[in-house]
Amino acid sequence: MRGRGRTAVAPAEERVQVVIVAVDALSRAGVVAQLRPQPGVRILDEADSAEAAVLVMVADTVDEDVRVRIRATTRTTATRTLLVLTSIDEQHLVSAVECGASGIVRRADASPEHLVQAIHAVARGEGHLPGDLLGQLLTRVGTVQKTVLGPRGLYFAGLTRREQDVLRLLADGEDTRDVATQLGYSQRTVKNVITDLLRRLNLRNRTHAVAYALRNGLI
Fold it and tell me: Cβ distance 111 to 132 under 8 Å?
């Protein structure tokens, strides 16, 4: 007769180290009180912020002080920033993302459970945005591509259409002459495209350029 098996016990949720900063002491105290009982996070003192996986920053909106703090955190540590904001519009959303924010939660939605979920998402590098803000961001990205970058032959991928075409053919094993023939360019033009690309992205040679483009999904 088969023995009775033991019931599997789910592993405890990994605790993410978090530092909380706010524009005023009362706001910080409120978020600390919400998060301290939660098993999924460990709150550090602000003096230990460099050791934190996530910086939770509580503010009314994305003003210059917030932008400076995000930039400093992104530039000097591996800590990701989650913003908890009273209000945010499309302009402030883009500004926060440009500065390096990894996630945003509205204060009105900032229940303890939601905050922990957002903190874990940001710590995993997934980011976190309310659905309507994500839609706004995607719309803004599309508009910038269509009206600003596209007419100049530039793309968010970091490569121009011409550079993408040249690298695709190089990845297929074509040499400079074949690339020039297939694209209708002179060999000198192809060489200049490759040289400019290597210099701009600090790549060593054509093989490195092709490997870089493939690894980053650019071609």
Answer: no
Distance separating alpha carbons of residues 194 and 26, to the nearest angstrom: 56
With CA atoms as reference, report the closest residue to 70 among 102, 31, 46: 102
**3-class DSSP assignment, residue 58:** strand
Q: Yes or no: say if 102 and 127 are a contact pair by the CB < 8 Å rule.
A: yes
Q: What is the mean pLDDT of residues 5-14?
A: 45
Angle made by CA atoms 10, 13, 14, in degrees to the nearest 5 = 135
- Tokens 């002080």 locate to 65
Helix (H/G/I), strand (E/B), else coil: 20 = strand
Indicate whether this model's pTM tops 0.85.
Answer: no
Q: What is the pLDDT of residues 110-169, one digit of tens each?
A: 999 999 999 999 999 888 888 777 777 767 666 665 665 566 555 555 678 888 899 989
Is there a contact between 94 and 137 (Cβ–Cβ < 8 Å)? yes
Helix (H, G, I), strand (E, B), or coil: what is residue 22?
strand
Of 131, 137, 152, 159, nearest in space to 219 by CA: 159
